[in-house]
Amino acid sequence: MDPSSPPSLAKHLSPSTAEAQQHPHGYVDDADRLAQLGYEQELTRGWSALESFGISFSIISICTGITTSFSLGLTNGGPGVMSIGWICVSFMTMFVALSMAEVVSAIPSAAGPYAWSSVLAREKWSPFAAYCTGWFNFLGQAGVTTAIVFGNATFIATVAALRGFVITAPRVIGIHAALLIFAGLVNTVGIRFLGHLNRFSILIHSVGVFSICVALLAKAPTHQTAREVFATYHDESGWGERASPAYVALTGILLAQFTITGFDASAHMAEETKDAGRAAPIGVIMSVGVSTVFGFFYLVSLLFSMQGYDSTVVPATGQPVLQIFVDVFGQNGGTAAASIIIACITLCGTFSVTSNSRMFYAFSRDRALFGWFDHVDKRTQVPVRTVWLAVLLAFCLALPSLGSIVAYTAITSIATIGLYISYVLPIAIGLAFDQHRFRAIRGPFHLGAFSRPCAIIATGYVIFITVVFCLPTISPVNSQTLNYAPVAVGIVFLYIIISWFGWARHWFHGPRQGASRSFFTFLHLSLLRFRHHR
Q1: Which CATH fold would you assign to the domain 9-533?
Q2: Mean pLDDT of all residues belonging to the chain
Q3: So where are the chain's domains?
Q4: What is the dihedral of CA 364, 367, 373, 374, to 10 degrees?
Q5: Which of 3, 184, 109, 139 is nearest to 366 (CA)?
Q6: Helix (H), strand (E), coil (C) string for 231-289
Q7: Global pTM?
């Protein structure tokens, strides 16, 4: 490492971290903790544990992933894989969430996973670990926003088609662009407004979706049997004969896994959350737990209310979930139900841009992106430039949909793979293989003796789904049906290696440490510790 470079973040973390975080005045200690990580408090701390939960809950947005990926589930395994797959995926994902909660409690930074890797890796590898994790998180963040907003654009176009709207790829891209601009404008207003919008999002995602589920089950003319919902297998992908039913089922769990992503948002908002060492891990765990329950209810409500598999998998409306709504409620009622879902997905996309912008801001703050993006608007205290960077990237990533029928599936795979790789790298580095450094800095939330077993399970599971989601979902494979997710991941990995050894290793040292700030920070923490021991 260049001797003139800022000292490694990991060196400055000590057992005093936990003491500072557990100080009775949690909100005051947030600024101290951030300073110990080497940063000034530039963003406004206005969020509580409720908002921390709300942003991850809104980005997971069970109605977003299930509604927009419902067709994939029907064709790749059918109702049995969708319902049982949801239970299995949710169970395994909770291990990832628990391990992530442990780490964010100790290192509550907007940088999220790449800061965790920097702290938990051995000093020699700390910058490289942070760089790899950061770019995979960057890829996943951009991919998940694209998938959310493009899925919403497609759903809006399909609903509009009930009234005579003619769907074309350029028109869907136009709707996609309009939704992104809306999300960008909302995100430039300020954190207080986003807090109010966050609480509304929690309400509509819970009460609104619950109401739709109850109405579906109550009004459906006929219902599928429990056997049809939980034990029926269908293969419309072509892989059942070419490979095996197990292959089809594995590709079908993408519906559930794509849905339960984005819960790192609570970590990226940590610098705007009061008592982040406690609130952020609560947000991570609760968002996954509550989404598991609500998502299962929404999914099985749709499956029980189908008026026929064939008419749903090849829907007259062009979209399976919309077809179920129209079959049960009629065209007007179906449009009303779809409007609630559209509102939920729009909020999901808006908060995904929020999360993206904080990660991109932190990444540029540490010189992995252009320094021009390291800017916070003085009036709103929002990183406006990275808000619009997130909007631009999400627009560009959707453009391949103009020429590929499986572009959306590829985008969802890219989002899922990128995010989960970035989630598991710090978990594997600091919790699964070597907990010595983590034990010295762990925060108020930790799993104790269950920490390492949980981390090992989480690591193994993410390796498994990374392989699965690189597989093609439609047979035969050609330029139109190829899963481009491994191509995108490969390009990012190649860029990481070339850029690191070519130039980045000379100036990227992970989460930065300002010498003067560190001095006064440690002086202050030393005084706190001295008073504590007196």
Answers
A1: Amino acid/polyamine transporter I (1.20.1740)
A2: 86
A3: 9-533
A4: 80
A5: 109
A6: CCCEECCCHHHHCCHHHHHHHHCHHHHHHCCCCCHHHHCHHHECCHHHHHHHHHHHHHH
A7: 0.86
